[in-house]
Write a structure and sequence with these properties.
With about 210 residues, the protein is α/β, with parallel strands linked by helices. The protein has one domain: Metallo-beta-lactamase, Chain A (4-Layer Sandwich). It is about 25% helix and about 35% strand. The chain is built from seven helices and 14 strands. The strands form three sheets. The protein has a six-stranded mixed sheet. A six-stranded mixed sheet has the order 7-8-9-10-13-14. The N and C termini lie far apart (about 45 Å). The relative contact order is 0.14.
Length: about 210
């Protein structure tokens, strides 16, 4: 029996929104075994991500949200990996800003389940950073892939178009912090954390407003 693994690739590029552009490093997560995998947020460098896939069958490309640093390379990676792209419908307007002539292959519904290597990833709709932001829970590994919804030290940014601070706080409080405290949170950028490490600080985040 093949063992489930979580591979991590860090890629570098830019993020553009509301007329500004910033340099960013993105976390790319690959969940699977020796024969098949799911890729979460294949950002910036499709060739490096394909190298990490290492010949496995890519069952799906899951996008946590539609910001351009997370999706701009997804089209090229789809061609390389021959795998369908899944993105929550509420972020398709962000997708169309980057890819006006082609749509994602499927819309992610809240509670949707994706199976790989005998394990199940469950989609949790966590709006706030963007309307269609989704986190993916992998209970068998005690892991949450939070995209840009929850980071080490607080929620994702909400100062730009289509984002809302009260909404992201509600998403985190009602959908993520109810998970077991030992759950490892693997984020879209930066270091991983745990639900238990972040849970005590919600009031601080609300007080500071970001």
């Amino acid at each position: 029996m093949n063992t489930l693994t979580i591979d991590h690739v860090v890629t570098s590029g830019t993020f553009s929104l509301d007329g500004g552009t910033w340099d960013v490093d993105n976390n790319v997560w690959i969940v699977g075994d020796d024969s098949e995998c799911i890729v979460i947020d294949p950002a910036h460098n499709p060739e490096a991500i394909l190298q990490a896939v290492n010949g496995r069958t890519v069952k799906a490309i899951l996008l946590t949200h539609g910001h351009d640093d997370h999706i701009r390379s997804a089209g090229d990676f789809r061609e390389l990996a021959k795998a369908p792209i899944h993105l929550h419908q509420d972020d398709w307007m962000l997708w169309r800003a980057v890819f006006p002539d082609v749509e994602p292959d499927a819309a992610i519904a809240d509670g949707a389940e994706f199976t790989v290597a005998g394990a199940t990833l469950k989609a949790i709709h966590t709006p706030g950073h963007s309307p269609g932001s989704v986190s993916f829970h992998l209970p068998v590994e005690g892991t949450l892939f939070s995209g840009d919804t929850l980071f080490q030290g607080g929620p994702g940014a909400t100062g730009r178009a289509y984002s809302d601070f009260p909404t992201i706080i509600e998403s985190i409080q009602t959908k993520l912090l109810i998970l077991p405290e030992e759950t490892v949170v693997r984020t879209g950028h930066g270091d991983s954390t745990t639900i238990g490490a972040e849970k005590p600080h919600v009031d601080e985040w609300i007080a500071r407003g970001h």
